[in-house]
Amino acid sequence: MSQAHHGHDEDARLMLAFQQNDDERCFDQLFQKYKGPVINFAFRYTGRREVAEELAQEIFVKCYIAAPRYQPSAKFSTWLFRIARNHCLNEVRRQDYSYRTEQVEESAIAAQHDDPEQQAQARAMQRAVEQALAQLPESQRSALVLSRFCAMSYEEISETMETSVSAVKSLLNRAKGTMIKHLSSFLTEG
Amino acid sequence: MTTTKPKVIRCSKCTKHLSAFLDGELPGALAEAVRAHVTGCPACADRLERLRALHGALDQLPTQQPSDRFDGAFARRLQAAKRDQRAAVPASRPRWGWRLPAFAAAAAGLCAVVVVAVLALRSPPPRTDAPDAGDELELAMNLELLQDYDVVANLEALEDFEVVKRMEELPVEEAVR
Lengths: 190, 177
Prior knowledge:
The structure holds two protein chains of two kinds.
Chain A: H1 3-6, H2 10-21, H3 24-46, H4 49-66, H5 76-95, H6 106-110, H7 116-134, H8 138-148, H9 154-160, H10 165-182, H11 184-188
Chain B: H1 11-22, H2 28-40, H3 42-60, H4 70-97, H5 100-122, H6 133-141, H7 143-147, H8 150-153, H9 161-165, H10 172-176
Helix pairs in contact in B: 1-2, 1-3, 2-3
């Protein structure tokens, strides 16, 4: 991505203001904006909310400390999620976490369906989706999470994962293909 | 007004691009080709529907909202990291500090060796006549360095220097004697 493109990146402007003027309010704005997406990203590595929050806090501490090394040639969100991915990968390996699907949030499902049978079916599907996502190889899962949950373009994903756009396209193709196979019974029922 | 017909693609190519098509990541002409193919191909249309259903299922997953204690926990963690960083800086100075004299001594020694080597290479060949004032000054300036100079220290070996130096000029009998 060109530097000119990042010239319009408000996040990069905030990060530079923090980097150059030590303006903590700028870092706090970025923290408030991205804490949710980073928690959700980390959650896809652990399946545990509390662990995901701890990882997210560590990721932001790393960003704070690494701020002097931030280059405006990188979009802030791709820089942040690159740190997030590396941290999650290292911690998951180090702590030997095994992904655990948490109890499905009943309230979210109940709000969508009145019929108890439909509620049960939706709960089962959600659990199946969580499991299929968790079983994907790490690079496929990261690409899919960045695409679907962080709304990143293929180019942004390629920068975050330090790979090519065509590799991202391939990772997403394979990830979705595998998930469709695992979820075939749910997806055909409409 | 004429409209360009979309390029015709096969199922294998269409399948490869369906995911990017749904993500809005295909360039215009290719996106048009995929759209045209899907319209006339039930199998690819079915694949596209499954992909749409998968996207829908992924989007239905509940998102995790930060807990009420998240900001406070982060602030405490950041303060601890800052304290660690501050503590790490003075601790690292003495570690380097006590090494500095050693580095300085090593650097000085290296400089001395280089100076000796340069002087040895650039000095004129030994002369039998008395040194002039410039030579004396140079000698005085480098006296300490020359004290360790093997050749100078081993003066006994130089006692016959004149004979050795003139060896080729001497008649054979005299040289043997």
